[in-house]
Amino acid sequence: MRGEKKKGSLEKDKIVMSYDREADTVSISFGKPRKAVSEEVDPYVVVRRDPKTREMVGITITNFSKYFEIKKNLSIEIPT
User: Fold this and answer.
1) Where along the chain do its domains lie?
2) CB-hemisphere CA count at 13 Å for 59?
3) Sheet holding 15-20, edge to edge
């Protein structure tokens, strides 16, 4: 049904992305803000997860300009 969220799925109806030019950092959040723990998945990418469910609630990409220059596209492998 519309509006229902499957357990363990991202809340796709609310994705917020912001860019801090001074820090050259992109932050992407899924759903409503909530407590999270950070997990570094590569030198530039940090995944934020709900500490109880391990559901991904956001991604932060540091040194975004350099990351994009090296990677050439935005493709991030997220460990489960």
Assistant:
1) 15-71
2) 17
3) 15-20, 25-30, 56-61, 45-49, 37-42
Dihedral (C-alpha) 55, 35, 75, 21: value to the nearest 10 degrees? 170
Q: Looking at residue 46, what DSSP letter applies? A: E
Three-state secondary structure call for residue 15: strand
Q: What is the CA radius of gyration of the chain?
A: 13
Nearest in space to 12 (alpha carbons), one of 35, 29, 33, 27: 29
**Residue linked to tokens 């500490």:** 51
Averaged pLDDT, 24-52: 92
Show the DSSP H helices in 19-78 as ranges. Answer: 64-71
* Per-residue model confidence as pLDDT tens digits over 60-79: 999 998 877 777 666 666 66
